[in-house]
Amino acid sequence: MPSSPPDADALAHSAHLQALIREQIAAAGGAIPFSRFMELALYAPGLGYYSAGATKFGRAGDFVTAPELGSLFAQCVAEAVAPVLRQIGESATFLEIGGGSGAFAEHAIKQLMAIDAMPARYAILEPSADLRERQRERLQRKLTPLVFACVEWLDGPLQAPWNGVLFANEVIDALPTPRFSLRDGEVFEEHVALAGDGGFVRIDRPADPMLSAAVRHVERELGAPLPDGYRSELLPQLPYWLQAVAGGLEAGAMLFVDYGHPRREYYARERGDGTLRAFHRHRVSNDVFAHPGLQDITASVDFTALAEAGTGAGFDFAGYCSQASLLIGNGLAQHLAAQESRAPDEAARYALRQQAKQLTLPGAMGERFQAMGFARGVEFGAAFLAGDLSFRL
């Protein structure tokens, strides 16, 4: 059953954003890099998908993230990072990048309180003013005033020295990504230009030295050149982004959960048009130019590149596993059993079991989503012991 078309207000909103993108294309001489188009479509102030007010998360939105399914995901993540917070002590900070609806923060804070591992402060770095307000309203309603007082919202990364845990769920996939292609052995960068009818079309222009060098690095790691006509995504800026969000982190851990692949799988020859796609009303589309501002645009994560970025920033690689392994290895069965014992009826128990299945089954989120951790001055490797996949990197 197809999703309902956008209403008149939504179409008018998208039209405003399209006009802005057209202005940027004209100012740039007729084309902008795809990464710039993606940045505007997702983050243009007041107009981009994540900057405007429509519901994004949950069944009423465009996609469901793990924290939106219930509390199990956040409880297990809290268990995974609690040893790090205890090693640091009372001065620890928990920094969440991109807080979504606030569901993760609510359940993680409650679990950290329950196991006596609550840090001195829980900080959320959220660029969207709309989402920030939704998070604030939810947490003020769900937490006691004393606990809510530990929560703060940041305008940028923590630049001053800090110790604690950085956590990001489904953040890297939404970073504006360059797209490249190969033609006659040369590297080109995908740009967005205007079609005759005012719509958007992709064109290729010679890549700059940074993107070309990044593609050649991938080819060296693969041990063979990518074939002519191959097109995919690559984030040369990932190391700089990681260092920026870590800020002044001196001792602690970073945990990233996202969908993606190790490099050899990401750049497999059969994946010749990359991983880019759009989400609208729980349906996947390859038309990333449709209705800018009304649909999410995303690309999978190259976890090998993430490992390089983390270790290049001076952190120790702590582990890499599937989401299923991360959750199972950090108390999923115990938390599921505890919630089932408190459930009021069989329907509630069934819903809990379905939540656990969605989080862990290979055909759902269990294998498509993966987790990677880094540490500095603390022990964090135990979080990944249930199913280490680092040999695939």
From TrEMBL:
GO biological process: methylation
Keyword Methyltransferase: yes
UniProt GO molecular function: methyltransferase activity
SUPFAM superfamilies: S-adenosyl-L-methionine-dependent methyltransferases
DNA damage listed as a keyword: no
Gene3D superfamilies given in the database record: 3.40.50.12710
InterPro entries: NDUFAF7, NDUFAF7_sf, SAM-dependent_MTases_sf
Pfam family, one: Methyltransf_28
UniProtKB keywords: Methyltransferase, Transferase
Protein name, per record: Class I SAM-dependent methyltransferase
Organism the protein comes from: Luteimonas notoginsengisoli
